[in-house]
Amino acid sequence: MNDLIEILEELHADVDFKNCVTLIDHNILDSFDIITLVADINSEFDVTIPAEEIIPENFNSAKALYALVERLME
Amino acid sequence: MLFTSYSFIVFIAVLFVLYYIIPKKYQWILLLVASYFFYGLMSIKYLGYILVTTVTTFYAGRQLKRQNLYQKDYLKEHKADMSREDKKAFKEQIKKDKKIYFLACILVNFGILAFTKYTNFVIYNVNHISEMFGNDIVLSFWNIALPMGISFYTFKSMSYLIDIHRDKSQGANSLFKFALFVSFFPQIIQGPISRFEHLSKTLYGPHTFDYDRVAFGLQRILWGFFKKLVIADRLLIAVNTLKNSPEQYSGGFVLVLMLMYSFELYADFTGGIDIAIGIGQVFGVTIEENFNRPYFAKNITDFWRRWHITMGAWFRDYVFYPLSVSKRMLKLSKWARKNFGDAIGRRLPVYISTLIVWFTTGIWHGASWNFIAWGLANGIVIIISLELKPYYKWFHSKFNVADKRVFHAFQIIRTVLLVSSIRLFDVYKNVPLTFKMLGSMFTAQNYSSLFNGSLLELGLAMYDYVIVFGGLGVLLIVSLIQRKSNVRLQLASKPVHIRHAAFLMLILSLLVFGAYGAGYDASQFIYNQF
């Protein structure tokens, strides 16, 4: 989880990723951030997030995103 | 049958009466018959195209759904006796089986779209290239009927197919229900590009007559007519004069054209969507919103989140994301990171995908280099704005203006000017001329002639300008109210005489100020041609 938070903070240092649950709903992460994030996660965790998993529920919080990464790693 | 024709009003009135007197279980069938009647009236030839799309997509979708169910059931049944590798291999096999139906359907439908829309564009370019090399062989253009709204219903149908392929939707349970989704008449010509999972919730009824809902729907329709007939069609006259005589109207007039076209397009397109959503509401069908006060956007990315929302979402979900997170793109990103550093490696997939998406968006709008240039210009400006992000951050760390109203106004005006100037590619007859006219805005010394009465020679009298400015003023006030609440809900909370007075005023303004009369035909909606 900490690795993921680090990746997120590299994108937006000023966001409280540990607690924010509206990253998509409040447009904190835009589609360009998401692509960067997917590429970073691919490099860091060796996990490919498919396009159909790019939905607000999976990207609204660091926790949800981490759950997705864990699910895809299985 | 245009939305703005008298025959359309009669069509809606008859349909309305029938819809609420027949048994409710037949309502959706009536909508299907009405939709095919509406579409067939434009040209009987179009029906063949839409039928092919409907039948191929429905049966391919059904096959994909079967495979999805089979996979789920099989895995559930053999959960205990399958290793992780077995499961993976099984899923891969299903994926392969699905791919055949999926790709065949995609190829057929995008093939039809490409054939009808782009064949002559390809011939034009082949001839042009051949001429450049001194070749005398000239291919003749083909006489192909371009079915109205084909881009919209093809995109709608393909989103249906992709969602089933991704197992995000169960699809329709009958061919006829799917046929209604594809052909639903209020949105077949200019959208919104609905998703099945959304539209199907209300499309098939049953719907009882609800006075408030029908009244809201009628208000929305009238509001759409007001935008189209009072503002858009009036501005169109001046826009045509300005764009058809570029030699005469350069410099300051280009700026006037740019702004006039921006507001004409806004009133025209949002007006058409208001009518579509309003008709849906009258029949109890909820159609997605396609605009969210786009001219209040603070930057171009924000603008595209608010303008033609369903098209933007389509390209984002079905082109941008799949392309930018594809294995090839991630591989390219990794390679670039290794060879050129993190900064370039991160940007590469985003920028390549952005340019491809905007190229596609451009060509989706029309088979011409103008639209391609328009699309690419949008993509380039978006990339530049991404590159400027650190500088904006630096600026805001030095100057505390981010929350100031003046700064917000500056951002809004800047965005309107930016998107309007890019739209000039869509106005002039070719790309070099557009660049020339854009350049003339900065070099011509004729701004003073804007105030010597020349604007009254564009086909609009002072009376028309007053109506246009008055109409735009009403639009602005409504948009400002919408920032905080729903205008129609607010109106509904007022006493009955105020509501009726507002309703009456809207009808009267249409009758008195609508741009029609002897010798005048309400023009087609701009987006009909896409």
Summarize the amount of helix of chain A as a percent range: 55-70%
Q: Write the element-wise H/E pattern of chain B from the N-terminal end onward.
A: HHHHHHHHHHHHHHHHHHHHH
Indicate the CATH class of chain A.
Answer: Mainly Alpha
Count of individual beta strands of chain A? 0
Q: State the major sheet of chain B.
A: none
Assembly state (oligomeric): heterodimer
Number of helices of chain A: 4
- Largest Cβ-defined interface: A-B, 18 and 24 residues
- Total separate domains of chain A: 1
How much of the residues of chain A is beta strand, in percent?
Answer: under 5%
The major beta sheet of chain A can be summarized as: none
How many angstroms does the end-to-end distance of chain A come to?
A: 16 Å
- What is the CATH topology assignment of chain A? Non-ribosomal Peptide Synthetase Peptidyl Carrier Protein, Chain A
How does the overall form of chain A come out from the CA principal axes? globular
List low-confidence stretches of chain A. none
How many separate domains make up the residues of chain B?
3
Count of DSSP-assigned helices of chain B: 21
Derived structural class of chain B: mainly alpha
Q: End-to-end span of chain B in angstroms?
A: 17 Å
Radius of gyration of chain A: 11 Å
Mean pLDDT of chain A: 88
